[in-house]
Amino acid sequence: MTTGPVRTLVRLTVANRVSVAYLAVVAVVVAKAAADSLAAADGPDQEFAWLWPPLVTFPAFPLVSALGRTAWDTAAPDWFFVGMIVVSALLQALALGALREAVLARQRRAIHSP
Description:
Blueprint: H1 5-14, H2 17-39, H3 52-56, H4 61-71, H5 78-112
Helix pairs in contact: 1-5, 2-5, 4-5
């Protein structure tokens, strides 16, 4: 029985341990940034609160950000920035899920080969 492409993408993105652990780390970092920016509403540290979420999603964030900047000018709203972080995290989770699947398939072939 074959699975459809949507089901495969969902399975690779959110239905394995590696992707879920990565998405949990990103969620914790985003929650911490939101709490820090609310706690330091007028302080100088508010600007640095949202430094970590793009760094956690780094390999995908510059690409998503570049695509987003072409659709929106430099004055993009805050929800757009958070949306880019979410899309970057989902792309990274998909890549981690695909990597995990490839490693497990290679191990299965090595075990079952004569």
